[in-house]
Amino acid sequence: MMATLALAPQAAVAAPVVAAGSTYSLYLDRDNSNEAFYALATFDGISELGAWEFLPITVSESETELGNGRSLISIQLRADRDLFPVADETGVYGIGTFGDGLDLLRSVFLYDARVSFLDSNSKLLTDSGNLVDEVGQAAPWDGFFPTADLVFESAALGGQGILGINFDFFVSERPAAVPEPAGVLLIGLGMMAMLAARRRRQH
């Protein structure tokens, strides 16, 4: 399902890594949903409002220059109630899913990529760890997380009161060492479609 996004003003921190005004896709799903949240957002530092099964979700992004040729690219999702309401349910997520990744203005190396799951006060509940080793093309980075046709899967997110998700991408002009793999699974979109079809038959 394509989410319809409405614009609301928000300040942004500019950094010359992602093309201002370019679009990117965002994918989010869970075990007990009837439909995934799929949104095409604009990277412009302006908050956009979508809905996932009647749950309003705000999508925004920012860039921060860290010095020494490094930058942080961040995409934030916020909701007014639990994004994963059923205890222990699995969450699925990706950036650039179905082919619209972040449009990078120059060649950069992704050295830290993590997803943080936050409570109503933006306090960290859990995170994915560094997923760079699972990204399809990180050195240099192609703007996808993990690829156009794969998504990440994290178990036992449900029932924790997760009202916020941050996708944080740390990039550098110079390559960095590759980290150890994190405990997050990759899953193909074909498999996701099969699981979604199975869920609909069960309802």
TrEMBL record:
Protein name (Swiss-Prot/TrEMBL): Ice-binding protein C-terminal domain-containing protein
Keywords, in A-Z order: Membrane, Signal, Transmembrane, Transmembrane helix
Organism the protein comes from: Massilia oculi
Keyword Signal appears in the UniProt entry: yes
Signal peptide as annotated in the record: 1-19
InterPro entries noted in UniProt: Ice-binding_C
Residues passing through the membrane, by range: 181-197
Highest taxon of the lineage: Bacteria
Domain Ice-binding protein C-terminal span(s) in chain numbering: 177-200
